[in-house]
Structure prediction request, 458 residues.
Amino acid sequence: MEGRKIRGIWGNKSRGRMHLLLVSVTLNLVLLSGLLYERGRRAFSEEKEQVLPGFCPATEVKKMGSLEVESRISSGRGWTEEGRVQKLSSDSVIINLDHGDPTMFESFWRKTGEKSTIIIPGWEKMSYFSDVRNICWFLEPEFAEEVKELHKLVGNAETEGRHIIVGTGSTQLYQAALFALSPSDAPEPMNVVSATPYYSSYPSVTDFLKSGLYKWAGDAYTFDRDGPYIELVTSPNNPDGFARQPVVNREGGKTIYDLAYYWPQYASITAPADHDLMLFTVSKSTGHAGTRIGWALVKDPEVARRMTKYVELNTIGVSKDSQLRAAKILRAVRGGYEGEQESGDGETLKFFDFGRLLMAERWDRLRDAVRKNPIFSLPEFPTAYCNFAGESGTSHPAFAWLKCEAEHVDDCESFLRSNRILTRSGRQFGGDSRYVRVSMVDRDETFDVLIDRLNIIR
Prediction:
């Protein structure tokens, strides 16, 4: 009997020790997990600070081959109170100039303050409809009016006798235009062409839906098929910056004019564009790419109706919030030239003047770097009188069509990638691999690194 009591006592003690051991292990694991979590959180936070907007994200680094992720981390830089970079180490960062993200205009818009700020109460603009009397029934009247006023100010397009169709960027409007210009009862798809070098997204966007109405048919210079066709004319051209006219010029042809870059900061405004179908976008005119607003000026009401139907079926209209913000932005641009727009220190804020000066300065620096380095060359642009600026000058496109002249370089994109510069190959524009398109509209710190890098590449 006594033995059973002793064994029971010892058994209870053993179980108690086991419980204490389990509690201790659990607490240690919890503490260790907390430490690991905090260390990981700090590392992730630090890494986020080091990956800069406009620089190479992790997804792009994977494409860099032997270059390691650490090479995108720059050293020797500080941060301003606004979170901007003060200094970058040119020998370590990977700069991504493949895309045309117009962040160089941020410094201008910071100064405009309330002039470009909009507040929308929660109860406003809840309906699908904007103006049911308009062909484009989801077009906000405020935005339509500012589009007309801006074109009148700049003198770059005729708006009289045109219908304004709003879209979620000019890409949606391009697709809407293809739909509107293609007969629904044609025996085969309409051929869509553009002269090389053409905008690199045209082929993929045209064929993305595998439509039975239209199909990509390549270079307009070599197009020799009979029958109707659609020609895309981008002027100033993306990627090379030159003014363009139609190439095919045959009976049965229809033309879409992409005039996204026909603004004073990029080119001389020689005359108002006066075509049946013209595309524009806020992203290139003012730099607000994230607003995702574009507009088309369309002469034929039936084409305007079909474009509206496409946008209706595709997205049931276009965000009113974005349209109202775009209207406020366009009004702020106009206000700078009507004496309404001043910064806190009394500086008159004229957006296109700011853009012209900045683009001219960047192109001067780029040309100087290329002149000193025989590996590269750039196109030369003719001088033209700009009616808006009231002076003669050359173009300063949003992209540089850079050519690698060195005999040992037959793939310019790969060559620049090995020097930590990401660009877009000329092959993607239907052209030569010795060319690349380089964005000229990224932030100042990114552009500074580009110039530093071009000065030392051999």
User: Anything to note?
Assistant: The two ends are 96 Å apart (CA to CA). DSSP finds twelve helices and 15 strands in the chain.
